[in-house]
Design goal:
Blueprint (H helix, E strand, L loop, with lengths): L4 E7 L17 H8 L2 E3 L2 E2 L5 H10 L3 H4 L15 H7 L3 E7 L23 H6 L9 E5 L10 H9 L23 E3 L7 H15 L5 E6 L8 E3 L26 H5 L27 H31 L6 E7 L4 E2 L5 E2 L6 H4 E2 L1 E4 L8 E3 L3 E2 L3 H8 L14 H5 L10 E6 L6 E6 L3 E6 L5 E5 L17 H17 L12
Parallel strand pairs: 1-7, 1-9, 2-14, 3-15, 4-5, 4-7, 6-8
Antiparallel strand pairs: 2-13, 3-12, 9-13, 10-11, 16-17, 17-18, 18-19
């Protein structure tokens, strides 16, 4: 039997609800097509609501606490075994196009990073470097979001080779130049040179590069991660007046850990939370001007619709090459995004559903139900083992994720997963938390702290009432802790089987 092709398409920092078939305010015709032809898994979670940890989990099948890239500003070690290595050994052509973010933006002699300046602007390096890297035989990557100074890499080569020799004019200077502030709103970068076009073009090229071999291609889009910047007509596609931003109810943060309430101060002092000396994402004031907030959300929607158009190009290319029927396509993102819910914006150590729940679509003609909604719990850490199962390959004992193929194919009544675990650690202790999610409940603990969170997702889906200190839920909390401890024991990897008595 011919092995299936595997195509993973991801966005960056996309709220789970920003899909046209779920939200009539946004237009995503191509993601809607994936739903019509596949299944929407409505309860999918990231293993960590920041980029590097989750992206490393996607390819290793391990949680950040095991693979080692536990926060932003860390590296996944380059010798880490990945799903790409396993598939390559089985005869697959493996490629990554777009954002990687497996390494820190910083660069030290002890921990070198090619995803950092000045290497990113060294186009001679990128003309020569195409892998192998983290199990991908061919790599075409870039690091920035919008016009950030991190621009360069293979994307810089592509712009220059296609005639935009002054591409640096459309991005922030490196080193950063205070006289050239970041852009906002409508980007003057010609649409044909946007990284969405680069990502879709170079993804399609990988289908041809694979030849007669089955392929595993990760098409990794950079949007809709802020800054809020996109070319026209996408920048004006949505009217800010039509945007519905999230709300903060009076008193809802009073029962939560103190850093939640501090986000609603004009000038909060988070210095005590920065044990490492580095900034902690989300630990700042989240107060926002309503008009600017609506404009941000309109741009965010425009960025998604622009990306969706290029996802359509990729899906069309599969059709044109006769590859659709034998290609497993998964669409997701690395983590979610706040747009006003609970008074929060973007991301941080706030494990509400808006940030840890992700869009998750699976299409595999003849194998996965079409136009179906499924509430079975999913985790992005499950992608690597499930891809291996789809390819008919054994799953290494080092992988902590679960094989979701039976659930995707609908061949089992009982879901593979009865929980999801989400990690977050920016600082050694002050911001070190984990969350345990079941079909109904969510429990969050903080290292060395007596506060925490308990939400009833069935009766309080918007997570307005923290039940952590409610004595009437003490038994519920105790039962969840017992389930969680067993889940922690079950997720211990077993890379080496026991082969003798001593």
């Amino acid at each position: 039997m011919k092995k299936p092709n595997i195509l993973l398409i991801t966005s960056d920092q996309q709220h789970w609800s920003t899909l046209g078939f779920l939200n009539p305010k946004i237009k995503t015709p191509n993601l809607d097509r994936l739903f019509r032809e596949g299944t929407n898994f409505s309860r999918a979670y990231c293993p960590n609501p920041t980029c590097t940890p989750t992206r490393a989990s996607i390819i290793t099948g391990q949680y950040p606490s095991l693979h080692g890239a536990w926060t932003l500003g860390t590296h996944l070690r380059e010798d880490a075994p990945t799903v790409g290595h396993e598939l390559s050994r089985a005869g697959y052509y493996t490629a990554l196009v777009g954002k990687a973010h497996f390494q820190a933006l910083g660069n030290t002699p002890e921990y070198p990073s090619i995803e950092s300046q000045p290497t990113l602007r060294n186009l001679d390096f990128w003309r020569e470097f195409h892998g192998p890297w983290y199990g991908f035989q061919n790599v075409e990557t870039a690091r920035m979001h919008a016009d950030e100074y991190h621009a360069g890499g293979h994307y810089g080569v592509w712009m220059e080779d296609n005639g935009l020799v002054n591409w640096r004019d459309y991005f922030q200077d490196y080193p950063p130049n205070p006289a050239k502030p970041p852009r906002y709103g409508a980007w003057d970068l010609p649409e044909e040179f946007h990284y969405n076009n680069w990502t879709s073009q170079r993804t399609i090229a990988q289908f041809d590069a694979a030849g007669d071999s089955p392929f595993f291609v990760w098409s990794s889009f950079h949007d809709p991660h802020p800054p809020y910047l996109v070319p026209e007509p996408w920048a004006s596609m949505y009217d800010p007046a039509d945007m519905e931003i999230g709300t903060l109810e009076d008193g809802e943060l009073e029962k939560l850990p103190p850093h939640f309430g501090m986000t609603q101060e004009e000038k909060p002092d988070f210095s005590a939370y920065k044990e490492s000396g580095f900034s902690t994402h989300g630990m700042h004031s989240h107060l926002a001007d309503e008009a600017k907030a609506r404009r941000n959300l309109a741009l965010y929607f425009g960025m998604i619709s622009f990306m969706d158009a290029h996802i359509g190009c990729i899906l069309d290319a599969l059709d044109e090459r006769g590859l659709t029927e034998n290609t497993l396509v998964v669409f997701s993102t690395d983590h979610g995004h706040f747009f006003g819910q609970h008074g929060l914006w973007a991301k941080g150590p706030f494990h509400f559903e808006d940030e840890i729940r992700v869009p998750f679509l699976v299409r595999w003609p003849g194998q996965v139900s079409a136009g179906h909604h499924n509430e079975a719990l999913q985790s992005l850490v499950d992608l690597a083992p499930t891809f291996l199962a789809a390819a008919g390959l054994p799953i290494p004992g080092r992988m902590q994720g679960l094989n979701q193929l039976p659930t995707w194919q609908g061949s089992e009544e009982e879901p593979v997963r009865d929980h999801a675990i989400i990690e977050f650690r920016h600082e050694p202790t002050t911001i070190h938390l984990r969350t345990f999610v079941t079909a109904r409940w969510k429990l969050t603990v903080y290292r060395d702290r007596d506060y925490g969170e308990l939400f009833d997702l069935q009766n309080d889906p918007q997570e307005r009432c923290n039940l952590w200190n409610d004595d009437s839920y003490a038994t519920v909390k105790a039962n969840l802790f017992q389930q969680w401890i067993n889940a922690e024991l079950r997720r211990e990897p077993m890379e080496m089987p026991r082969i003798s008595g001593a």
